[in-house]
Amino acid sequence: MTNITHEAENTSVHYDWDASALAVYYEVELDGEIVRVDDSSSYVHENLIPGSNTTLRVRACNKDGKSEWSDLIIAKTTEEPLDKVIRPTCFSNDEKIEVMWDSVKDADYYLIKFGVYTGADIFIDTNIEDSDFEWKIY
Prior knowledge:
The protein is mainly β. The chain folds into two domains: 5-76, Immunoglobulin-like (Sandwich); 81-138, no CATH class. The chain contains no helices and 13 strands. It starts with a strand and ends in a 13-residue tail after the last strand. The mean pLDDT is 79.
């Protein structure tokens, strides 16, 4: 396989390669795992961590066999901009801590520093004790 190009985004990498006239399907090796790609000469590797490396190589396949693997391509997803979540605010009383922030377009979820996932732009913790808290929203 030749002329493999890629475009990295925050949580995905889009790959394209020159189609082989003899290929019935392709196999893509992603980070050591082989995935069958029908007759498309492109693939999107999704659900990646921002700022992480990922590897890919491709081979063409048909009833007579499989080609050699392409050269290994190493791509890195883009880093999450620091200003994606802006103006977090916090309110607390004796019963709860409430953290709110501006929504980020197309965000599937937010990760609160101590490992809580939420699909909204608000998090309320009612399991509090008399202690200090540090919040970081990803």
